[in-house]
Amino acid sequence: MAVRAISFFTAATLFTVAALNAQVQQIFPHIAADSGWQTEIYVDNTSTQTATFSIAFHTDNGTTLALDGNPQITNVSLAPRGSAYFKTAATTQESGGYAVLTSNVALSGTAVFTRVSAGSVYSADVPLGETYTAFSVPFDETADATDQFVEGLAITNPGSASTIVSCTPYAPNGSMTGVPISISLKANSHTAVLLDTIFGPVLVGQRGQLSCTSPQPVAALEIRADNDNPSISSLEVAPGGALTGTWQGTITSAAVNLTAQLSVVISQAGSSLTATSTITGANPSCGSASTSFGAISGSNVIMETVSSAGTGGIIGVVNGNSITGEYSVVTGPCAGDYGTFSITK
Questions:
Q1: Which of 161, 180, 232, 284 has its CA at a distance of 20 to 30 angstroms from the CA of residue 250?
Q2: What is the mean pLDDT of residues 258-286?
Q3: Rg of the Cα trace of the chain?
Q4: Which of 133, 141, 142, 192 is nearest to 163 (CA)?
Q5: Mean pLDDT, range 196-222, rounded to an integer
Q6: Contact 311/330 with Cβ under 8 angstroms?
């Protein structure tokens, strides 16, 4: 993330960001490409400013996913309301995977998987989105009039560290059905698994909700099909609020060489964050409590606050159950203060 002219603030009071030039990372968590399937990728700029983006296509084994027509994929300029189109190359090899898009502004997009069989066209899609450390998705392993539903879960770990995704199935009444399972992903990797393979027969005939968490940000999609039938549909996952909860730690002012205790209650809805911070042992004239608003993009947290004690800004990095970062006070009795913080959940 490139940051320009940001005032950092650590003593858990107030946050304000003066100017920000952030690179936004977004993910297509599943790309289908083999002898039966091809994927078309649509990228749209819905903003009023020109976007410059690069998109990298990866297979499960870490190689570059081939595209039809050899299109430009780096430093692509997209005018306001402009769009770009990509398509996976025809292949007889299993070469599905994922795509990572990096841009100066958040973009919209859809990847459409298509298969032609016996004169019929079957397709499903996945939207372009951000990563998250928790998600849920419905599952339905019941039978229809002719067949059994089969569901697969595709998960992408675009980060530089390996992760283990833990998933727990819940029945409609909220009780756990079956036991939690773990899915290991290496750094910069993608996997696709069938639910009845990883959970065994316990989910057969059942429907409910699958709740998953990961210490590293991931992206996911569920694909649903009839057994031995090429028709499919996709189930978009609901990102969870993995940062929601109470975090404890310290905040250290570099300006006055003072360390105080910091308690932060975070509420996360999608990528949006709200936080209430309380400092114990700090300069009382700087204020001991504040409410902050911001967002998480990938593992980066950016928040701002305005309170009776002044204004300031904070940026931090999430690493599993810890957040570390820097802050500065811009206005108020402690204007000019700056430092670092570290909190754990």
A1: 161
A2: 80
A3: 23
A4: 133
A5: 88
A6: yes
Which tokens sit at 284?
């009382």
* Element (DSSP H or E) covering residue 197: helix 195-199
Tokens of 33: 């490409």
Q: Tell me the C-alpha distance between 264 and 248, whole Å.
A: 6
What are residue 342's DSSP bridge partners?
A: 250, 324
Domains along the sequence of the chain with CATH:
245-344 (2.40.128.120)
Residues in CB range of 271: below 8 A, 6 or more apart: 130, 132, 239, 295, 296, 297
Dist CA 339 CA 220 (whole Å): 36
Please provide residue 128's backbone torsions phi and psi, each rounded to the nearest 5 degrees. Answer: -70, 135
The burial class, CB within 10 Å (0-12 / 13-18 / 19+), for 254 is: middle
Instruction: Give residue 18's pLDDT.
Output: 33
Q: Cα–Cα–Cα angle for 226, 230, 232, nearest 5°?
A: 60
CA–CA separation, 313 and 22 (whole Å): 15
Check the CA dihedral 12-17-23-25 and report its sign.
positive
Given a contact cutoff of 8 angstroms between Cβ atoms, the answer to whether 41 and 21 are in contact is no
Per-residue tokens: 156: 């992408």
Residue 275 tokens read as 């936080």
Structure tokens at 36: 């039966």
**Gap between the Cα atoms of 176 and 210, Å rounded:** 10
β-strand partners of 118: none
Q: How do residues 14-44 score in pLDDT, each as one tens digit?
A: 333 333 345 788 999 999 888 788 999 999 9
Please tell me whether residue 127 adopts helix, strand or coil conformation.
strand
Angle at alpha carbon of residue 47, lines to 311 and 299, rounded to 5°: 55
Helix, strand, or coil (residue 320):
coil
How many whole angstroms separate alpha carbon 193 and alpha carbon 152? 5
> What is the reported pLDDT for 213?
87
Distance set, CA 321 to CA 191, 324, 339, 343 (Å): 24, 10, 21, 9
Q: Judge whether residue 308 has pLDDT over 80.
A: no
Residue 33 carries which side chain, given as an amino acid letter? A
